[in-house]
Amino acid sequence: MISYRVGLLECEHGRASASQHVRKRLFSRSRPACQEQNSDQFAAGTLHRKIPAFLVTQRQARSSEPQEVQMQRWIAAILGAHNAANGLAMLFASSIWWASVPGVPDTGHYNPHFVQDVGAAFLASGLALAARAWRPAYWPAAVAGAGFLVLHGLIHLALIASGHDHRAAADLASVVLPSALALYSAFPTRGEHYA
């Protein structure tokens, strides 16, 4: 039994409306005129000419989206490793970290609790970005991790704009640019498959 949808291949007697989805036998004995009218629509090579253009989907040309996903994952991996290492140093070697990072001692007196708190945030951010690099479906975690970095970058941008940052070029390169890259690497692309 061959079936067809009455809305697309309606016979000439017009008893079925275009919105009906009734399945009937294609070649019935009761309607010879319908058989003749519909049989030419299924002749070899003519079926595609009878389908309206808006129902036919064209295959999209391949783009560079898979390469972009790989690039995002690499950026997330590099930033994740860097931020996790920075966070671990701030947690477990806070006095060494404080003394060795240029510009940090100029911000005030050393406060180990404060350095460790910020270190925990850097560690969480780094692990979230690393998760994105490991499994692309973990992009929501990476967005949260990048969120901390973006807020940190905005604080440095405000200091630069107000003239209170004496290391503007270094902060743009080491804080602001990585936060923008982290945000870029966190969100999935259109062609990416994720959970």
How would you summarize this macromolecular structure in one to three sentences?
With 195 residues, this protein is mainly α.
Strand-helix topology:
Elements lengths: L2 E3 L17 E3 L6 H8 L7 H4 L14 H28 L1 H7 L11 H23 L4 H24 L5 H19 L9
Antiparallel strand pairs: 1-2
Helix pairs in contact: 3-4, 3-5, 3-7, 5-6, 6-7
Any descriptors?
7 helices, disordered N terminus, 3% strand
Residue windows where pLDDT falls under 50 for at least 5 positions = 1-11, 18-27
Which of globular, elongated, flat, extended, rod-shaped describes the shape?
A: globular
Strand order, largest beta sheet: 1-2
Fraction in helix: 55-70%
How many E strands? 2
Separate helix tally = 7
Please indicate the percent range of residues in DSSP E strands (runs of 2 or more).
under 5%
Largest sheet: 2 strands, antiparallel
Q: Kindly provide the radius of gyration, computed on alpha-carbon positions and rounded to a whole number of angstroms.
A: 31 Å
- Kindly, what is the distance between the CA atoms of the first and last residues, rounded to a whole number of angstroms? 40 Å
SSE order, as H and E?
A: EEHHHHHHH
**Mean pLDDT reading:** 78
**Which structural class is indicated by helix and strand composition?**
mainly alpha
Give structural notes.
With 195 residues, the protein is mainly alpha-helical. It is 58% helix and 3% strand. The chain is built from seven helices and two strands, in the order E-E-H-H-H-H-H-H-H. Strands 1-2 form a two-stranded antiparallel ribbon. Helix 3 (65-92) packs across helix 7 and helix 5 (112-134) crosses helix 6 (139-162). The longest helix has 28 residues, at 65-92. The radius of gyration is 31 Å and the shape is globular. Residues 1-11 and 18-27 have low confidence and may be disordered.
